[in-house]
## 1
Amino acid sequence: MKRIVICADDYGIAPGVSEAIRALLAERRINATSVMTVLPDLFEEADALLPLTGGQASIGLHVTLTGSFEPLTHGFKGATFPSLGRLLLTAFARRLDPVNVKAEVETQFIAFEEAFGRPPDHVDGHQHVHLLPTVREAVLEVTRRRAPNAWVRDCTPADGSLNGLDPKGRFIGFLARGFAEEAKAAGLTVNRGFAGAYDFKLGTNYGRILTHFINGLGDGGLVMVHPGLVDEALVKRDPLTRAREAEYEVLAGAQLPQILLTTQAQLR
């Protein structure tokens, strides 16, 4: 049996998402979650998660630099972070200020440490921002100093996890080029293989999608998931809504054990 990580992103983005993730952790349906530290109710959500952090689950930092969230520092123009498209353009044009980026990343680390009383077990990025030029250097450097035992998420797709042309998966793989090597050079470990990117708008059968992802992973691989319950806060904060409930239904229901059996996988 291959041992894998099923990691739920976006813990803390809204109460319904956090509630769903806690339920899945409690039932051992997932074994990792990544926490956003830029929301005002971080400490309340952390307190609710702490009883489930007894060593079986990896609780990580979800570095956030995009979306309608207020930065924790003053280095970003505007009241909220830029869109992903704007951040991509700025990063690849080499116009991100490395001092401001590092300050924001470090402050999010500090917020995590204050909320949970310890460094994160792993580090990744909301909308994969940790892979971008300037951002990746800051994330790896701050992780090396503040959480040297943490693993960082390499988003290089596992060969068997891509689905046809899969432009989204391949683009994320393009962003990840060289990241694993840079992480290892910093003394950090990474997951071995990645899956989980798909077009949320397609409305396809998530059970089939998840089966394909896990089947394509090898031992030590990671599949990213976004389960949640839709509430008013989520609708205000993020466009990804109904797909979260579809994922939660599969992860919480009778399908997941059968998927793991079929793919000869178990949670690490």
## 2
Amino acid sequence: MGSNTRDAKATTDRLASFFACPPSDGGHVVEGGASLVTFRGARAENQDRAFVAFIPQHGAKQAYFVAAVLDGMGGMDDGAKAASIAATAFIQSLAIAPEPDLASVLEVAILEVNEAVWAMMQGRGGTTLTAVAMTQGGECRAVHVGDSRLYCTNPTLCQVTTDDTLAGLLGLDDLGPFDSGLMQYVGIGDGLMHQAFDLSSDPSETLLLTSDGFHSDVDLTSIVSVAGDFGIGEVLGRSALGLHVDDNATAVTVNRRHVESEVAVRRRALTVISAGRHCVL
């Protein structure tokens, strides 16, 4: 076994162990213009996974910033396991990507993540995945599968992604009992159709990624309108503390201007930050 293979396996093992641990409840400010907040709610466990990461590229001459929310599907086998596998595979794919084109890198990553979850779960488990990635030069792209969401704020809230549900595809808020669940999810196997977005045009935007437990129970529009000097992440955390949510609820905020400057100095080590925890590889 070559050294590169051993290094890749060691990275995968450490990431898998990192994401296997359930996230701690509460809000967590991340250096570099991002924040995370997550709550278990009324569920027995938190099957959401969320992270921000700085991933060196091409001999540490540059790096990607990545933020993601993954909502393990509780109606299937072990949603937490599916989300953990997906988070690990997504970061690993970006870390070893030989292709400098960010759109291509993300497309390969989402397909490899789908294959990884399918290989382990054989269709018995799955997860959503909503992720954004940025370069030092300000390029910003997103990929999405499922009903977690990506919003942008400049200054009002605008939903970028479309839920992979019947209601979402029809452009409706709710179909009640006729909206019978996800039509696409990571781990579905052959036929995955992901969404992709180029968000490079407006670096002043703040981005917000949420699991459905958050955007179903929290008035995000009102929070964005009153966030002011507190910042969206802090207000989200304060609001969630007063909620009695039925589902796991997770949100990640990304201030693009702050993140862009931080990427320039985060080129040496792969750094993954989740709820209250860091992993440096």
## 3
Amino acid sequence: MEKTEIQPLINNYHNRLATVSNKYHRYLYSQINWDARMIGIKGARGVGKTTLILQHIIENHSNVDEVLYASLDDLWFANHSVMDLVDWVWIQGIKRLYLDEVHRCPNWSLILKNIYDTYSEISIVYTSSSLLSIDNASVDLSRRQTLYTMRGLSFREFLEFEGVTSLGPIGLGELLRNHVGIALGIARETRIIPLFNDYLIHGFYPFYRTDGKDYLIKLGEIINVTIESDLPAVEDVSYETISKVRRLLMIISGQVPFVPNLSILWRELSINNTQGLKMLYALDRAMILGLATGNIKNYKHLSKPDKVYLNNTNLMHALCGSVNKGGERETFFFNQITAVADVNIPQHGDFLVNGQYLFEIGGKTKSFDQIKDVPDSFLAVDDTEIGSSNRIPLWMFGLLY
């Protein structure tokens, strides 16, 4: 293949590099072992995976053409295969290949395996906007790759993004022990509650800075693309199924937190239990829903969730006509703490974390009445800048990653 044939792909690569800012790095940037020969980065659309790998190229390659980036949703791939690209890369002596949106390629996991096994001098960094494709890969890449999950902005990252503070992540144990001192330090720098309320509406996805007033509209469009494009790319689903997934999402979004009566729900959607659970867990893997269960969640053995949340509070504001404050508080807590801990629904209280810490979520007047006799029990309370004892401001659970 002549260079003129691949030049459009190179031009797109250069154009993307020209638009990337290195001013701010997502939390995952420093956690990745960039020396690994195959790196997978999975996560929801819009969390910044493409920006992250382009930043790495700019900062680690003075000659950007000694590596190559390509998005597999590029029109170039309508007339060319990934292996056409790999053959050209190998002939040119390029030893590092960055592949974006790999789920756009049929049999992507088999292709990655073949590249890894056949071209021993080429290392690969790949991303996918769809968790479905990576978790349901037909070929096991576990022995070959190092896989990372990228989440949306934590509240801590949002504060750094806004230039308020450069505080590093705080471990859960440290937060529970020393939340008063930590809060005092932050309170000296800024009024935290207005910033927290802003974050709940438009702070989870980094593109809020560029989309401004259109942010929630853009977020709705991303949800539609995930359901209408990403899901069919990795699952054999019909238009009717896609329509039912969308309807299921709208039913749930109007009742967050949703305590499912599955027989009624499935009857309304004209589907059976197996089909319905597959839809719920697909939306969970796609980071549109958050499923809370009494036991450890298992994607191979689908069980009824105890509660269903939207993945994050920004989705609530994008999808719901009016946002229930109690549901918003629980959604925030569940979203942030599941990044660093195992979370289950207990018989008493709202959330059991790591099988040890029991939490009730509420407003600033919330009392301990429901969990007063339980060891290691805490209140996560809203509209509170600085807590005391086992009464911790809700916003502080956004400092964990």
